[in-house]
Design goal:
Number of domains of chain A: 2
Largest interface: A-B, 51 and 35 residues
Oligomer: heterodimer
Distance between the termini of chain A: 32 Å
CATH topology of the largest domain in chain A: Butyryl-CoA Dehydrogenase, subunit A, domain 3
Number of helices of chain B: 10
Number of domains of chain B: 4
Largest sheet of chain B: 8 strands, mixed
Number of strands of chain A: 7
Radius of gyration of chain B: 57 Å
Structural class of chain B: alpha+beta
Strand content of chain A: 5-15%
Structural class of chain A: alpha+beta
Distance between the termini of chain B: 212 Å
Radius of gyration of chain A: 23 Å
Chain lengths: 221, 547
Amino acid sequence: MTPAIPTAKALGLYSCHTCGLLSRPSRRGDSHCARCGTPLHLRKPHSLARAMAFLVAAYILYVPANVLPLMETGSLFGAQENTIVSGVAYLWTSGAWALAAIVFIASVLVPLLKLFALTVLVVTAWRRSTWRPYQRAKVYRMVELVGRWSMLDIYVVAVLVALVQLRPLATITAGPGAIAFGAVVVLSMLSARAFDPRLIWDPVHEARSLDGSPSIRHHNP
Amino acid sequence: MAHRPYDTTIPEIPDAVAAPKGRWHLHLVWLVPIIAALIGGWLAFKAVWDQGPTITITFRAAEGLEVNKTKIKYKNVDIGEVKQVMISEDLTQVIVTAEMSKRFSPYLRDDTRFWIVRPRIAFGQVSGLGTLFSGAYIGLDVGSSAEARRDFQGLEAPPVLTGDVAGRQFIIKGPDQGSIDVGTSVYLRRVPVGQVLAANLDQDGAGVTLTVFVEAPYDRFVTGNTRFWNASGIDVTLDSTGFMVQTQSLATIVLGGIAFETPDSTMAMEKAKEHTIFHLFENRAQAMKAPDKQAIRFAASFTESLRGLTVGSPVEFHGISVGEITSIGAEYDAHTQTYHFPVEFSLHPDRLARHFKNTLMREDDTGLTTKDKINALVEHGLRAQLNTGSLLTGQLFVALDFFPDVETAAADWTRDPPELPTIPGGLSGIERNLSNLAKKLGKVPFDAIATDVRHTLQSMRTTLQRTEHLVQRVDEQLLPTALATIAESKHALQSVERLTASDSPIQQDAREAMRQLGRASQSLQTLADYLDRHPEALIRGRKDDNP
């Protein structure tokens, strides 16, 4: 019996996560890539559980990231604590709508959407859903792409903290919210990394092979 | 999922390398969300736990208050933040809602006071300058009441005194507030030891009530007998005792102040209880006067001018102030058709020695009443007299003194107050003497004297003229002769000088004469010697030497 689609997994072969080399499983113990030494698995081990764990942690920290002050400004004119939302509100009320929108999207919306997207991916993969695999694959690519840009806030805070240290006049220190926010971003990146996108397709292939439908249709963008 | 055996039709695929099983466990990854949950949970718990009470403070205006910015500070430590500023329904006040720190909630008592700290520049002090930059904040003073409270009425001005200063409060009642105000310092021997907390008009409007706070440990100097007086400004007194200027420190001159002191004799008294009521005297002299417990009223009728005598002028007995004038009046006496001026005064015998007081005021063993005693004194010549206290200002005072030689008089006990007999004195006496003097002067025959003087002057002038003539003659006639005489005498002197010169013939003759005289005396000596040895030669004449 031959598989409907010749994936490495279907053929019983390992595909190296790092260099893509195909190898047969080792007969003794765990398999490692013959070329680069990366541990080999058919799919990333415990991919969904790990992705889920990071995701849950990210969700939890998302709350303090938005509630706790991201930045503490101390100046001659008094101390002030800024959360992300208060910063957006300040920008908005002072007329910088575009800037407010950018900060809001980059710092509030995108992380949240990212968390939601990952949740959808993990849950559907868990349930071995065959629902809209193309769209899900697209979402995964976007999540991967967007991930590294979510740290903008942290960059800004880090730069300001380093620059504005005019002791008696003005100081800026990173608040606990910055740590939480950074943690959210890092955790969501870890979650995205832990998620194995091939899991989106496994149930699809299985379903296909069971009902004996023809090979996967070619997707034309 | 069952793995299918790999397809042998792909021969190029290499075998994977075997490696020992790693010690990776699935559940470890779940530590991440657990830790995150712990952190999040702790933060949430802390937030809830730290949630302090929300209080409302009512102010008249919310100047400088900003929502989410204005802090509430105690000793300059943030303990809360303004969360909402609203206007009361009747639009008269501003209701500030603030969130306080949880740890501070036990200190929100019934008498905790709130006020807005703004920059304040007053005469004596500058405060709240920091708020120029940082914006206003709400300050508070922790109360000590047992009752907790969450809605407060804010103060419009910072309280003078915050609760953590030890000391005691006293009430002072005075006739007027003067320049004393809330915050005015209280001085003890010019040391600021307290402040005025409140200054209010009495309910009946007849005076003011001041609440003063005296800091510990100085509050122990406030005893039951302590005198408070208004030490504001410069107290210039110009009265029969002279010119007096009294001030406290420079600050009190500008800002006003209250000073207190306890008379030495009563220093040992117990501390006054809190909220003891004291009287505010006008100045130190008044305050430090011995208390006048007993006063007897008298009057004295004067006929001379009372200019310079005022209500409050002293009554002195032998120079000791024993009372004050209480009223001055004018009365028409139909009988004599003259005016006389009754002066009422109160006497405080206890200002005198104890003995006098006892004898005058008390029914003692002798059984004499005050009236009897006064009568006896009057009999002995006690009279009231107007005296000049200060020649400079013309201030008068009533002097009580004994005048043993005066005509007898008696006190008039039918009047109220009883009237003491008077004698003219003081300035009026001087006036009378002066007028007597003037009369006597009037009798002096100034005209005759003037004529005499004129005559004398005339003769004097003639004499002087003659003297002048004389001098002139002397000048004209005597002087040339005198000059000639002088020239001659000079000449004579020169001749004498010539005569006595060493090379003058007279000198030489004299020397010759002297030499001859010497020789003569030698011969005489030889003769004398010869005669000594041959006395007979006198008779027989000289014999030859060689017999």
